[in-house]
Design a protein that fits this description.
By secondary structure, the protein is an alpha/beta fold. The protein has five domains: 4-238, ATP-grasp fold, A domain (Dna Ligase, domain 1, 2-Layer Sandwich), CATH 3.30.1490.20; 249-335, D-amino Acid Aminotransferase, Chain A, domain 1 (2-Layer Sandwich); 375-508, Glucose Oxidase, domain 1 (3-Layer(bba) Sandwich), CATH 3.50.30; 547-634 and 688-887, Phosphoenolpyruvate-binding domains (TIM Barrel, Alpha-Beta Barrel), CATH 3.20.20; 635-674. It contains 35 helices and 31 strands. Strand 18 and strand 19 form a beta hairpin. The radius of gyration is 33 Å and the shape is elongated. Bound molecules: adenosine-5'-diphosphate and magnesium ion (MG) (2 copies). One magnesium ion (MG) binds at residues 723, 762, 783, 785-786.
Length: 889
């Protein structure tokens, strides 16, 4: 097979094979932009290596052939003694994983070619600095020497010379350093640093392959739901040097502001530096605009390249470039990560500019981004003590206790504490801590530093480059000129403004949340830009989508909010919530009833309360469907806890107190009702069939609420839903009772009710027999929570804490099946239920009311499956509307 592609053979549509970096390098080369020559080893080769432990046998020859072409064009050979060609060996997977895998620069240097490089470029110090970087990088990433060992050798030399900075070391120091590094490698590995350039190249390539399974790469993939079996490509590319003097440098650029979406030139530039120094935040960068003064010709060339890229990709691009002695080289581009606010803004701008269609604009935003825009902001009306200002790198408001390393962040957050990770700068090793933290705060680095890029990608709050802060990780504190903040102290981080406050600043609704709370009306003159951008996209989504969106709501307040957020009805009204609070004693009385009379009295007391609830909900959702589910949970949930009650009774007995009759009786009932696995016990339709009068009371409350609303001139659209049906026979029995009650109320009041009666499909048997259930059920609602539990045999409360993280680690699934629907298993049952239900009853109305109704990926599945609606929590309604629109594109 073909495992190596020259840049001129590839293109952006080949990212699966060439990785994102390789595909885009190829695309830029093809566009005629200045890209240092190179070629890409495919992800296919990596997959072979990961599967067998060996690279494909043809690989070495194919690499040599492509290298030879490169060498001929350059007129130099890899590692050639008098004037070496040097290459970088760069990782690059299908989906961008910034800084998570390895890249090795300056391959081809050895004890001889370092002299040749010095001579050819007339820069002795530079050559030795490059060599010591190679030995260090190769020693740690390829040969496995702990990078801290190199750091401490370096620190030792710096100390001898009273140097605070690498730049203060002279050529002699660097020569000594290379020797010491080589000695270290030999000592640690028993093997010398390889002098053969071909061997360096081969081993570096395999090290990049191996880094696909490095710990931080795995953590990142899990967090971003990237599959573990894709593998990485390897890009082998001629080196260009940004550290050859003041007319050289490296930088990162965005074609629009990735924080706000504003068009313009954004980025960071570091004169006289290699590109890795920019991202590492080791030295402070200057804003890219400065380049206009430093090197106007290169700046103009860069602007031109950026304009070409944006027009070509029709999207925000981010770019890595290097200037070598006033010549611009493009080293990377990709469609850039951006904040949610920027995503909405850019989608709108590009539509206005005619670069993309409104449908494409809709495709470029997503539900998770919208959800983030709905998060609260800090209240700016009170007095707040500003600790520090930094760069607003990733927006949002976060409050948490300060921690200074990744492990502490992970430890505290596992205990439920909210933390803010404070570092001088982050490295990929901080990833677990960044995931655990609410916010990341650094004292160094710009908008393109590791912290900023990773936080933005994860939607995590980040302020970086807060230069007033002195971070002391050993002392576990940071200080400003006036205050010292210690580990555990609470701070507030505003990633939208780039501010850090002492203490917990109160939160207020975001403008986008206010917009939805106000009913999603067209924004007026004074509305902020982000609200306009969101409004516009929501309009497009509503126009595009086929599915309706309902909400799960149990109270009139929730129903009203859901409606303001755009819900087209209630897909799940859980009546058990009406049994809680001060009504518990009535429910208790119903359960403890000795005879029909007592039970009826208890039910009669509940009736007016439920009726009033239903009236409120039907009023809030006037004219829209409200699906009311009959009582579902097992009765013990309404009784006191068994252990607690036993202890109380035992204590009374021990104290020789007169046994409280009620308590003894209660204990007997609780013991009787206690279920080892309540998920599979006496609940759902089974309750209705076993507890006399329960269904009748609930249906009567619904029916009388409908009557009351109709008499008040309303348009109530109640639907009655039976939970946890396994067999059509169960449904038939309950349905007969429902029908009797509806008829009785209708006859008694003279009001026609028209309440459809349907069922939940939430057990595998129901899905498999949906064809016969549909003979009697007038609608289906897929209860995908219980369907997931029962299909997998997972008791949700038991499995999540016990072993889900192990399952995610082992790649059994990428996401919890409770979060995103499992298409192959649970999804298959959904498909069967839909197909067979509609075969019996054409046009059968089918929705979903599990948590999955608000999950973006699941919404796309439900669209594809042909559901009529999804129902989710009120706050997720806008997300579901947006995703249902995107699914229909
Ligand atoms: P990452 O995926 O972590 O961004 P890269 O492969 O982009 O890793 O490499 C990191 C940096 O190394 C680049 O931003 C660039 O500045 C520098 N680099 C990579 N290849 C070259 C090259 N051929 N010439 C000069 N610098 C390079
Ligand atoms: Mg890069
Ligand atoms: Mg259920």
């Amino acid at each position: 097979g073909k495992y190596v592609y020259n840049f001129h053979e590839g293109g952006r549509d080949m990212a699966g094979l060439l990785g994102g970096k390789g595909a885009n390098l190829a695309e830029m080369a093809r566009m005629g932009l200045p890209v240092p020559p190179g070629f890409t080893v495919t992800t296919e080769a990596c997959r072979v290596f990961l599967a067998t432990g060996e690279p494909p046998p043809e690989l070495e020859r194919q690499v040599s052939e492509h290298l030879a072409v490169m060498e001929r064009a350059a007129g130099r050979r890899l590692g050639q003694v008098d004037a070496p060609l040097l290459v970088s060996v760069r990782s690059g997977a299908r989906f961008s994983m910034p800084g998570m895998m390895e890249t090795i620069l300056d391959i081809g240097l050895n004890d001889l070619s370092v002299l040749g490089l010095a001579k050819a470029l007339g820069r002795e110090r530079f050559a030795w600095d490059s060599y010591r970087r190679l030995v260090q990088m190769f020693g740690s990433t390829v040969m496995g020497v702990d990078s801290a060992r190199f750091e401490s050798v370096l620190a030792g030399i710096k100390k001898q010379h009273h140097a605070d900075d690498d730049t203060q070391l002279d050529t002699c120091d660097l020569i000594r350093l290379v020797q010491m590094y080589q000695d270290l490698i030999l000592e640690e590995t028993g093997e010398a640093f390889p002098q053969d350039p071909a061997e360096q190249l081969r081993r570096a390539t395999l090290a990049v392959f191996t880094s696909w399974n490095g710990e931080r790469a795995r953590i990142y993939r899990r967090r971003e739901h990237i599959a573990d079996d894709l593998g990485t490509a390897v890009n082998i590319q001629a080196m260009v040097f940004g550290n050859l003097g003041p007319d050289s440098g490296s930088g990162v650029a965005f074609t629009r502001d990735p924080a706000t979406g504003q068009p313009g030139i954004y980025g960071d530039y570091l004169p006289n530096a290699q590109g890795e120094d920019v991202v590492a935040g080791i030295r402070d960068t200057v804003p890219l605009q400065e380049l206009e003064h430093l090197d106007p010709a290169s700046f103009a060339r860069l602007r031109d390249c950026m304009a070409q890229l944006e027009a070509h990709y029709r999207d925000l691009c981010d770019i890595e470039f290097t200037i070598e002695r006033a010549t611009l080289w493009m080293l990377q581009t990709r469609v850039g990560k951006r904040t949610s606010q920027a995503a909405f803004a850019i989608a709108g701008q590009l539509v206005d500019e005619g670069l993309i269609t409104p449908q494409e604009g809709l495709a470029r935003v997503d539900g998770e981004g919208l959800a983030r825009l709905m998060f609260p902001r800090f209240d700016s009306s009170g007095t707040r003590e500003v600790l520090a200002r930094g760069i607003p790198a990733s927006p949002g408001a976060a409050v948490g206790a300060v921690v200074f390393d990744s492990a502490e962040a992970v430890r505290r957050s596992a205990e439920g504490e909210k933390v803010v990770l404070v570092r001088q700068e982050t490295t990929p090793d901080d990833l677990p801590g960044m995931i655990a933290a609410e916010a990341v705060l650094t004292s160094r680095g710009g908008k393109t530093s590791h912290a900023a890029v990773v936080a933005r990608g994860m939607g995590k709050v980040c302020v970086c480059g807060a230069g007033e802060l002195t971070v002391d990780p050993q002392g576990r504190s940071f200080s400003t000129p006036s205050v010292t903040v210690r580990e555990g102290d609470v701070v507030s981080v505003d990633g939208s403004e780039g501010l850090v406050f002492l203490g917990a600043v109160p939160l207020v609704d975001s403008p986008v949340m206010r917009y939805f709370e106000d009913g999603g009306h067209p924004p007026g003159e004074s509305a902020t830009q982000v609200v306009r951008d969101v409004h516009r996209v929501m309009g497009q989504a509503d126009e595009a989508r086929r599915m309706e969106v309902r909400a799960n709501a149990d109270t009139p307040e929730d129903a009203a909010r859901a409606r303001r957020f755009g819900a087209q009805g209630i897909g799940l009204c859980r009546t058990e919530h009406m049994f809680l609070g001060d009504r518990r004693s009535l429910v208790e009385a119903m359960i403890l009833a000795h005879d029909d009379e007592e039970r009826e009295a208890a039910l009669n007391a509940l009736l007016p309360l439920q009726r009033a609830d239903f009236i409120g909900i039907l009023e809030a959702m006037d004219g829209l469907p409200v699906t009311i589910r009959l009582l579902d949970p097992p009765l013990h949930e309404f009784l006191p806890d068994l252990t607690e009650l036993s202890v109380r009774v035992a204590r009374d007995e021990a104290l020789g107190r007169q046994p409280d009759l009620h308590e003894t009786e209660l204990l007997a009932a609780v013991t009787r009702m206690h279920e080892a696995n309540p998920m599979l016990g006496l609940r759902g339709v089974r309750l209705g069939l076993v507890v006399p009068g329960l269904v009748a009371m609930q249906v009567r409350a619904v029916a009388e609420a409908v009557v009351a609303r109709k008499r008040a001139g309303g348009d109530p659209q109640a639907e009655i839903m039976v939970p946890l049906v396994d067999a059509v026979e169960e449904f038939r029995l309950v349905r007969a009772e429902v029908a009797r009650v509806l008829e009785r109320v209708s006859a008694g009041t003279g009001v026609a009710l028209g309440c459809p009666v349907g069922t939940m499909i939430e057990l595998p048997r129901a899905a498999l027999t949906a064809g016969s259930i549909a003979e009697d059920a007038e609608f289906f609602s897929l209860g995908t929570n219980d369907l997931t539990q029962t299909t997998w045999g997972f008791s949700r409360d038991d499995v999540e804490a016990a072993f889900f993280s192990a399952y995610l680690d082992k790649g059994i699934f990428q996401t919890s099946p409770f979060e995103t629907i499992d298409r192959e298993g649970v999804g298959r049952l959904v498909e069967i239920a839909v197909a067979e239900g509609r075969a019996t009853r054409p046009g059968l109305n089918i929705g979903v009311c599990g948590e999955h109704g608000g999950d973006p990926q699941s919404v796309h599945f439900f669209h594809d499956t042909g559901l009529d609606y999804v129902s989710c929590s009120p706050f997720r309604v806008p997300v579901a509307r947006l995703e249902a629109g995107r699914a229909a594109l």
